[in-house]
Amino acid sequence: MTRLQSTLHRIHSLDLHWCVQFNAASRHRLILIFFKLISRLGNGVF
After folding, report:
1. Distance, first Cα to last Cα, the chain
2. In the prediction, which pLDDT does 34 show?
3. Residues 6 or more apart from 25 whose CB is under 8 A from it?
4. In 3D, which of 41, 42, 22 has the Cα closest to residue 32?
5. How many distinct structural domains can be found in the chain?
6. What's the rounded Cα separation, in Å, for the pair 24 and 18?
7. Residue 31 in contact with residue 39, Cβ under 8 Å?
8. What gap in Å lies between CA 44 and CA 27, rounded to an integer?
9. Nearest alpha-carbon partner for 35 in 43, 5, 18
């Protein structure tokens, strides 16, 4: 495996890990409300 392939594989593995972690955390009500609020603010509520 080349150095580039190795680096890309590591980045992909870390990305997958964090996606799974955030997905699991989103099941908690407070975290879900927090991200809904941030998303709402990002849509230009103000």
Report:
1. 50
2. 87
3. 31
4. 22
5. 1
6. 10
7. no
8. 25
9. 43
- Residue linked to tokens 């495996």: 1
Cβ–Cβ under 8 Å, residues 32 and 26 = yes
- Write down the pLDDT at residue 45: 64
Alpha helical stretches, state H, the chain: 3-25, 29-42
Integer Cα distance of 22 and 3 in angstroms? 29
User: Could you read off the pLDDT of 1-46 as tens digits, one per residue?
Assistant: 799 999 999 999 999 999 999 888 878 888 888 888 888 888 876 5
pTM beyond 0.70, yes or no: no
Task: Give the range of the structural domain holding residue 36, as residue numbers without chain letter.
Answer: 3-42
- Chain position carrying tokens 């955390």: 25
